[in-house]
Every structure is written in structure tokens, then in C-alpha cells.
Amino acid sequence: MNSILAFLIANPIITLFLIVGFGVALGNLTIRGFSLGPSAVMFVGMLFGHWGIRIPDEINTLGIILFVYSVGLSAGPRFFSSIHKNGFTFFLISLLSLSSGVAVIWGIARLFDLPPGLCVGIYSGAITSSPGLAAALDVVDDPNISIGYGIAYPFGLIGIILFVQCIANLKSTREEQILEKEDPSRQEHKVLEKHYLVTNPNCTGKPIAEIDFHSMTQANITRVKRGDRVFLAHDDTVLHLNDIVRAVGTQRELKKMEHLIGKETQADMDFAKDIVIRDVYISSHQITGKTLQELEVHSLFGVIITRLRRDEIEIAPTGQTTLEIGDLIRIVGDKDDCDEFVKIFGQQESRIHETNLLPLTLGMVAGTVLGSYNFDLPGGIQFRLGMAGGPLLVALVMSHYGRIGRISTRIPHAAKYLSREIGLVFFLAAAGTHAGESFWEVFRQTGFQMVLFGLLTTAAPLLTAYTLAVHVFRMSHLATIGVVCGGMTSTPALSSISNRIDSETPTIAFASIYAISMVLVTTLSQILALILM
Question: What is the pTM of this model?
Fold first, then answer.
């Protein structure tokens, strides 16, 4: 046994993959619908840590960066619109929930006359916040802080995971997942197609380009029906009274089209056999970064682009819309014209999945630099976003804008998924060995009382965040899952349900509140340390 341990200690990379392998196998076990998922890697890591095996800190940092950066890339396209609508809500939920944990541990410290450092550490461990631990140690160099963190962290992690899985198992959550496509918050982003009868005399007798619909709505007119004939709508197409047009856009933009043209109708708009519809993946660098107006797709190829799907988001394209590698577009036109367009610009499978490492690495460098920077607050308090907050914010910005000059920052879905999963298991393996190293010794010294205090400190923010999200702000349970995970800055909790819920809503909510909570938990940990000391 000693020789095996010596071999594992001397070969941390082999040990890392052993922990990951055993952890993934354990996480795949399901008992009455409950499974630990990737989080089981941490518990296997704790067992290895108890035997004196430790994964290098660099692996831990690398895992955090890879995971949160991938989360940011996935959530970025919708993050800022979500913040614009719900920023104050997320701030209030984060502030009140994290402050409730501060209040609980402060009350426990006063009632039981516990060492201040131990209580500060219990708070950071109960909400599973390594940045909170680091921030507290920056203010007060007390070894009891680390001891309290070691006691509370494993049970805080288990508590958060169990709480989130309970929400995921609720009947209302399952119903929301099934009906999510009808949720108004998602419906507003969905691209629809509707037919309208031309009754507005201001739109008749003029070419579509002269009417300039795009100055009033982002919806596109793609087809026109006149009598029994259906044809493509071009810029020079003249609309007549009682024509029927097909428009493509979001619900909100189509509503504007109804006011501009005329009432909606259910008339049939099928093409003749010589007109085809093709869904095409863009794979040519010749057209990426250029607007549809610059490309003159219709003039050169005779086809119309009616829809665009990028990073799981549908867009109604306009003349100012740019195309990127991997975009899925819908083209309509003559069969030969469509075939020619596809031949030049699309369907080269290998290019669709290519990952440009330059913007990926530059983004991670920028994120780590930002995460290492100390921000000064009034009263001499400092905080850092850390290796989670910094990369997350940079990834959100880069994925939101989609490019830096001529360089596309888009990352294929498969690449994002792989880097997210690898980063997560690396982080959990390293964190597990670190926690397991001294856990049992600390647990024997302090007993179940400290565990109970930690669980109470974990429960307060969880219940506060859930109550505010569901009963005060009327959020869906899917969004509440992300709010609870992000409010507690718990990536393992988010990962524990990611494979069970086929929805982006928890991830978007997680990313929306995570950055706010990172700042608040760091600040509150320092304030707690100063108050108790």
C-alpha cells in the first residue's frame, strides 16, 4: 500500500486522471433519481487527500479558468440583455441571501462565544467560496479561518447540491422544462414566420427597398403571394393591394409589421417546385465578418437569407447582420442558385468545428489578469474577482460582441462543452485533495457542533435566495436553479443538474448573478472578519 501511495504522490498527473475516472464512474450512479454527477470527483479527491495525496494548485487554477470561461462563452449572447432587464433583481437577491449567512454566523459567534477566525472560515466554507476564504485571510492572518473553512466546505457543497437537485425534481420544474418554448421570456427571442394581407395604401405601388421596413422593424419580408403565384421578395419587388406577404422575425418585431402592412392571415404560401429551402452551415472565411449588405447575396447568387442561428440563438437577419463560421442560415431560392451558394460558402464540415485558439488564449490571459487585480473600496477594503470572476467577465464580453476587429471570438459548441467538462473535473479533483488532507483531523477536534453551524449558515442563503426568486420576484424554477447556484458561487451545484435539464435558462441565470455574487461574497467575508475580530 505504501509503495502505491508513494507512486501516486510522485505522479500527480496519473493520480489526477485516476481521481477523475473514479469520480465520473461514481457520479454516473443514480439512486432514486439522485446522482452526484461530476461533483462526485471532489469526494473521490477528498479520499485521496486523506491518504496524503495532493494535486498541484496549478491544476486547480487551470480547471477553474477553463470551466468558468466556457460558461461565460455559452451564456454571453444573452447575458447582457438579461442583466439589462433583471440587474437590480439579481443584485438584491445576492445581497440579501449572502447577508443572511453573515447574520447567522455572527449570531452563532455571539451566542456560543466561538473563536472569530473559526466563524469567518465557516462562513466562507458554508457558501463554498474560495475567494471569500482568500479575502478573509488577506484581512486577518488567523489559521482558525482555514480550519473553519475545511469543516464547513464539504457539507456546504453537499447541502447546496442536494437543495438544487430538490428544486430540479419538483414537478413544476419538469413542467417548465417541457413548456419552456412557450415561456414569454424565451418566446421574445424566438424567430417566427407569419403572413399578412397588404391593406395599407402607403405600402402599395412602391418597391420594398423604398418602403424601408427596416427603419421601423427588424422583421424581414421573404415571400409574396399575388393571386395563385408565390415568389421571392426582393428589394425591387413592388407590393400591391391585397398581396399576401410572409414576414420572419421575433414576436415583437412581427407585431410592428402587422401595423405597417395589414392584418395577419393564415393563407397558404407554398412555393412552386423550382424554389427550394436549404439550411446551410457557413464554413468559408471569405464571408465571415462581412454584413449581408456588403455580400450582396441576392444580387450575386439569387438567394435570400431568411434566418440565422448562432450559439443556439435564432436571429432575423438584416442588411447589417454579419456572418460567422458555424452560423446556420436558411436560404431560399432557385435550386441551382442554392446549390452554387452552398458549394462556395458552406457545408465544409471540418471548418465548422475548427477552434481559433488565438482569441481563446487571449481571452483567458485577459481574464486571469483581471481576476488578479485588486480593487479598492472605501474604508481600505480590497477585493479581487479571482480566477473565476475575471475569466467569466471577459468571456461574457467576448461572446457578446463575437469578434475583436477581424478576429472572430466564436467557439464551436463541442469545444465549449469539452473545455467546460475538463475544467470542471480538474478543479474538483484538486479541490477535493486539498480539503481531504486535513478534514478528518479537524473534524475530530471540533465535532458535529461545527458541522451543524456550517449547515445553518449554508441553509440561510439558500432559503433566502429561493424565497426571493420564486415568491417575491416570481422567477421560474429553471431560472431559480441558476440563481441559487450563482448566488452561492457554486459551479459544482450547477454541474450536478446540467446533464438532467435540457435548458439554457439555469446557465444564463447563473452567469447573470455569479459576477455580482463574486464581488459581494468577497466584500462580505472581509467585512465579517473585521467585525468579529
Answer: 0.59
